[in-house]
Amino acid sequence: MRIIAIDGPAGSGKSTVGRHLAARLGLRYLDTGAMYRSVAFAALRLGIDPDDARRIADLVPGLEIIVGDVVLVDGVDATLEIRGPEVTRAVSAVAANPEVRTEMVRRQKEWAQAHGGGVIEGRDIGTVVFPDAELKVYLTASETERARRRSQEATDLHYETVAADIARRDLVDSTRAVSPLATADDAIVIDTTGRTVDEIVDELSSKL
Ligand code: DC
């Protein structure tokens, strides 16, 4: 099984680099953030408070989540809504829930088995989910650049709102008790600020 793990904070370029690298290597690509976002989406739809750890944990085992170009949560197309401001606000609390993480990690391993590996991106992929990955990558970018990228994607939000949200999520994601965002000791660290996708994909391919 060939696993490439990509971790890093919001807006660091994980998805863009991950998709291109997967295409170059002929591997499948998995965005694990979309899985945590799907849980937050389901909770909001059902009126469950994202901070209600017990109810969120009870929701997860029976939840069908299919992550691809289209994201389906219990058969509902959540592709656009999981990127919206409500889910983005709710997702850190959901992702800090240990029972949610255990179940998502189980599903990520199952996905990799089913697809013969893949390029998998998230926050804990190289540190916790696939510590034996063939290649571990940790992407970063300056705070300004990360907020600029995300505010270009969300044209209805002001740069300041996006920047504040990213800073809040960085803090929650990197200080939570279970699987905080961290750099694996053996990860290749790349600052993507001002660099092209092709350059980075070339650099990573040369390490394989
Ligand atoms: O990459 P993203 O912004 O779509 O991730 C959404 C949230 O999910 C983010 O705040 C952190 C969390 N996450 C996580 O805790 N572990 C992962 N493997 C992926 C995402």
Automatic annotation (TrEMBL):
Q: Which UniProt keywords apply?
A: ATP-binding, Cytoplasm, Kinase, Nucleotide-binding, Transferase
Q: Where in the cell is it found?
A: Cytoplasm
CDD domains according to UniProt: CMPK
Domain (Cytidylate kinase) ranges: 4-205
Kindly list the biological process annotations in GO that this record carries. nucleobase-containing small molecule interconversion; pyrimidine nucleotide metabolic process
GO cellular component terms listed in the entry, alphabetical order: cytosol
Catalysed reaction(s) here are: CMP + ATP = CDP + ADP; dCMP + ATP = dCDP + ADP
Which InterPro entries does the entry link to? Cytidylate_kin, Cytidylate_kinase_dom, P-loop_NTPase
Q: Keyword Repeat on this protein?
A: no
Q: Answer whether the UniProt record assigns the keyword tRNA processing to this protein.
A: no
At the top of the EC hierarchy, this enzyme's class is transferase
The EC number(s) attached to this protein equal 2.7.4.25
* A Pfam family this chain is assigned to: Cytidylate_kin
Which amino acids does the record list as binding ATP? 8-16
GO MF: ATP binding; dCMP kinase activity
* Homology family: Belongs to the cytidylate kinase family. Type 1 subfamily.
NCBIfam families, per the entry: cmk
Q: Identify the HAMAP family for this entry.
A: Cytidyl_kinase_type1
What's the name of the protein?
Cytidylate kinase
Species for this entry: uncultured Acidimicrobiales bacterium
UniProt lineage:
Bacteria, Bacillati, Actinomycetota, Acidimicrobiia, Acidimicrobiales
